[in-house]
Amino acid sequence: MAVPRSNRAVLLAAVVFVTIFLGLAHFHLNSPSESTPSAKSGVDEPAPFVPEKEAAAAAPTFVPGEDEEIGATPAVEVVAETPKPEEHHHAVTPDKPEADPAEEPSDPEEIAEAEELAANASPTPAAASPPLSRSKSRSRSTNMSTSMSMKKTPTGPNLDAFTPEQWIKPAVKVNDPEYYPYGHWPSKLPSDKPIWTKPLGRKLCIIDLESRRFDKPGQIWSDEMTWNKSREVHGPSGGTLNHWVYSKIHGYQYYHIKINGYPDRRDSWKKPSVLSQVLKKHDVCVFIDSDALFNRLDLPLEWLMNYWSISPQNNSLALPYDPDTQHNRDRRGNLFLNTGFMIMQNKNKTYEIFKEWDDCANDGGKFPGCTEFRNRKGWQPTDQGGFGTFIRYEYPDEILSLPCTEANGFPESRSGCDGKFIKHVWIGKEDRLVQAVGAVFPGVLLETFHKQFLKESENFKTSEDDLIKQNGMPW
């Protein structure tokens, strides 16, 4: 290895000598176009950093600044005299790791000689390296921060921001002549002059009444309702959630009202007194049982009122017939009207009807036989029995009967009532009703909307006592 190292030193000395010679020759010729820039670059500008030795050695052009005392001498001349100009640069710059240690001079005398020759020839680029290092450090820091920000992966969709209004839009305007569910089998308005022509918005309300707590796992007031725990999902709680979602989609006011119990009759008898308190604040309200669902969430209620020809001039209440069975008939042989779905209008007659209905089961009232409907007896209804047996016959022109197959029942009942628009699951509330809830809220929709329901509950949750404090007794 001694011979190559000696040759290396000789070669380095020759390169330095030739470099000095060319510089002196150039200076002697006094080239005006090159002398000034070379002097300036040697003082003010740091030499560019060229880390790739092999690429630089093979390049056919001269790189300014490798030897800063040399001006922009034509590249051909430099290459002809010094075929490997980069060799010198790497030999005198010990902080360049690219150089092969076997090729560098290891003898102290050779190293000292080479360093002395290099120092006499020109300042090394290493002197200008600190600013470059700082610049490189800033660049690397910027690149690292950019890279880190780009590597941040999203945590998944924000389900809290996925609201009922974003999920479903109304499929028709309130006065459109036809409604096509998913583009097929249309329903048509009976008149080309619909009664309701504009959305009612918050002038229309949807009401849930409940005396039960419903706070066990899987129920509406528990922390979680999810199909991951499908055995816990509570059917009537899913119905309640359906009512709230329907209200949100169409911009209606929603109420969830905790009612008090009666000591001598079923809690459902609270309907007339509590509903009248809320109706006074709106033009139209809908009461719907927790085991009933809005089967077409994209269909506005105003369109349905046009479809059923419900008019402010001639109808205070609208209710559907019950299925055609013997136990659903009153003493006159007529089918009961189901009070689990009612459309109510803010009219004086409505409050008159409600007051008589509320008083129906009291002792000494206008309808003595109504007391037997205070509580269930087999298939006999309670508040619905009193309403259907007595009240509706007092106001035949104010109460509209709706088709059972459109506003009551469910297909599996095989009762002729399929729940086309309003699905009412009176039996099988812990299996059939849960299946119905799953059909309208599949996958993550159930837990997503349930969480939003709980978050917004302060805006719609109230009680019978609160209503009395605000408005006084209903009559």
From TrEMBL:
<keyword id="KW-0808">Transferase</keyword>
<dbReference type="GO" id="GO:0006487">
    <property type="term" value="P:protein N-linked glycosylation"/>
</dbReference>
<protein>
    <recommendedName>
        <fullName>Nucleotide-diphospho-sugar transferase domain-containing protein</fullName>
    </recommendedName>
</protein>
<comment type="similarity">
    <text>Belongs to the glycosyltransferase 34 family.</text>
</comment>
<keyword id="KW-0328">Glycosyltransferase</keyword>
<dbReference type="InterPro" id="IPR008630">
    <property type="entry name" value="Glyco_trans_34"/>
</dbReference>
<dbReference type="GO" id="GO:0016757">
    <property type="term" value="F:glycosyltransferase activity"/>
</dbReference>
<dbReference type="InterPro" id="IPR029044">
    <property type="entry name" value="Nucleotide-diphossugar_trans"/>
</dbReference>
<feature type="domain" description="Nucleotide-diphospho-sugar transferase">
    <location>
        <begin position="268"/>
        <end position="396"/>
    </location>
</feature>
<feature type="compositionally biased region" description="Low complexity">
    <location>
        <begin position="117"/>
        <end position="155"/>
    </location>
</feature>
<dbReference type="Pfam" id="PF03407">
    <property type="entry name" value="Nucleotid_trans"/>
</dbReference>
<feature type="region of interest" description="Disordered">
    <location>
        <begin position="82"/>
        <end position="162"/>
    </location>
</feature>
<comment type="similarity">
    <text>Belongs to the glycosyltransferase 77 family.</text>
</comment>
<feature type="compositionally biased region" description="Acidic residues">
    <location>
        <begin position="100"/>
        <end position="116"/>
    </location>
</feature>
<dbReference type="GO" id="GO:0000139">
    <property type="term" value="C:Golgi membrane"/>
</dbReference>
<dbReference type="InterPro" id="IPR005069">
    <property type="entry name" value="Nucl-diP-sugar_transferase"/>
</dbReference>
<feature type="compositionally biased region" description="Basic and acidic residues">
    <location>
        <begin position="83"/>
        <end position="99"/>
    </location>
</feature>
